[in-house]
Design brief:
Elements (H helix, E strand, L loop, with lengths): L1 E7 L2 E2 L8 E8 L2 E9 L5 H10 L4 E3 L5 H9 L3 E3 L6 H9 L14 E4 L15 E3 L30 E9 L5 E4 H4 L3 E4 L7 H8 L6 E6 L13 E5 L14 E5 L5 E9 L3 E5 L9 E10 L1
Parallel strand pairs: 1-5, 5-6
Antiparallel strand pairs: 1-2, 1-3, 3-4, 7-8, 8-14, 9-10, 9-11, 9-17, 12-17, 13-16, 14-15, 15-16
Length: 297
């Protein structure tokens, strides 16, 4: 196994898209046997994902990362552990011990029209907040949360642990299509059971045959969860730099106490206060997927 960590002077660098160095660890029998620091050779999630793939990387450990990067990594079968901070060597040891938790990323949003001055193309905000556009994806990084990135899956199946490719079309109960890999012209690649997908989607693929097509109906607990009223909160505009530029209905990113990006929606704003909703936009919704397994290896 080869693990890469976004790297800067011994610490985990927090902006994947701007990482100038990676520390690469060679792992055998669950232990690090060698390591080296390599240059990024370019910026942007596509270039960096291609670089890591070319270096034979199996796992990426990083801090802040956005949806475009997550998708680029998933396409290459690279497992993601996002939201890590602190000493790079310690993070790798925690991963190998099964103690590192992947916070997930919201792949619906890519930074655009930002206002905070430290907000990259991956949707990672280094301070304050910024607006964003919207899209869709079936991966757990889209706010479904994926729990421990090195934990055993809660289900079994012949495809668990395999790198698979699947086409899918997602619809609401009224038949509205919210996402489709067919429209993009290429299947989604991920490791089945690794927590890269929402639970119901992952479980459906676990026992499929290559070429098989299945239709699944997912309740919220196997999709993006129920809506949490505690995730809706109001703050003073004067206390949040950049908030004065935002409007109700826009998307934004805030930071938690560790500097990790939190995707939110602005649901209300007046002269003094702004109200955010940190629930995923599909929280509480029943979803339908038509899934076609293209490849499993």
């Amino acid at each position: 196994m080869r693990i890469a960590v976004t790297y800067n002077n011994g610490e985990i660098f927090q902006h994947f898209g701007h990482s100038e160095e990676f520390k690469v660890y060679e792992v055998q029998d669950g232990k690090v046997v060698a390591s080296e620091v390599i240059g990024s050779e370019g910026q942007g999630h596509g270039a960096l994902a291609a670089l890591l793939d070319g270096k034979g990387i199996d796992v990426l450990i990083c801090g802040g990362i956005g949806g475009g990067a997550q998708a680029a990594l998933a396409e290459r079968g690279i497992e993601l552990c996002a939201g890590a901070a602190g000493d790079a060597d310690a993070a790798v040891e925690a991963y190998l011990a099964g103690e590192l938790v992947n916070t997930g990323v919201n792949c619906d949003h890519h930074g655009e029209g930002h206002t905070c001055g430290d907000y990259d193309e991956e949707g990672y905000c280094g301070g304050g907040c910024g607006s964003a556009d919207e899209g869709g994806c079936a991966s757990s990084g889209c706010g479904g949360g994926c729990g421990g990135c090195h934990a055993k899956p809660s289900f079994e199946g012949k495809n668990v642990g395999k790198r698979v490719k699947a086409h899918y079309r997602g619809t609401f109960n009224d038949g509205t299509v919210f996402d489709s890999s067919y429209d993009r012209g290429e299947p989604l690649e991920f490791v089945c059971g690794a927590g890269q997908m929402i639970l119901g989607f992952d479980k459906a693929v676990a026992n499929m045959e290559v070429g098989e097509i299945v239709d699944v109906h997912l309740m919220p607990n196997e999709a993006y969860g129920e809506s949490d009223p505690d995730a809706i909160f109001t703050v003073k505009i004067a206390e949040l730099p950049g908030a004065e530029e935002l409007s109700a209905g826009e998307e934004a990113y805030l930071q938690d106490m560790y500097g990790r990006p939190i995707p939110v929606r602005i649901v209300a704003k007046d002269d003094e206060n702004i109200t955010f909703d940190a629930n995923h936009e599909m929280a509480g919704k029943e979803l339908n997927f038509r899934i076609e397994l293209v490849e499993a290896e």
